[in-house]
Give the backbone structure.
Amino acid sequence: MHGETTTKEKILKKVRKALIEKSVKGINVDFDSDIYQKPEEPLEIIFAQQFTKLNGKFIYCQDEKELAENLSSLIAENQWERVFCFEKSAKEILKKTKIGFSENEKDIKHANVGISLCEYLAARTGSVLVSSKQSSGRRLPAFANYHIVIAYSSQLVYTIKEALTGIKKKYGANLPSMIVNISGPSRTADIEKTLVQGAHGPKEIYVFLVDG
């Protein structure tokens, strides 16, 4: 019995010693290397697959002309009214297409369709990153029933980490006060345990990805 206790004590001492040495030396963790394998498929395909899994609607456009045509068709087919857009380059596209929209921020609470740009798309998780530096800010995606995002292939990255790095490079010391990661339409199961879309935000989210 005494010999067994002595053996246990020796083992415990070794464990304690190892733990102390580990804590003193520290653990070298590489936070800079990418933990994910490089994608084998084009980022456009990966993003489309992941985004649609989250109930997002993905539309690929070869150029801005096709973007304008697809936008017009979507709005006309759904007979959507009260379209809001605040971002300059997006407004120019709508004007060329003769899509009627409002840019009066006082009426944003009545927005049915919100059209905005984004900062980045993260393909691995099917995420859309928007920030408070955009004219739409945090308001339009929160009020609109349908959120349409216009993005370009140059904004596609593989991970959210790469997207955040890109935002840091873009704004430098003047970082946005808010960066939001949108993963599909708003949904909750808090109401009688039934999944409801659009409870705290848009019922549907569309990403129009323009090549080039």
In short: Helices lie at 2-25, 43-53, 64-78, 88-97, 140-143, 160-171. The radius of gyration is 24 Å. The chain has six helices and eleven strands.
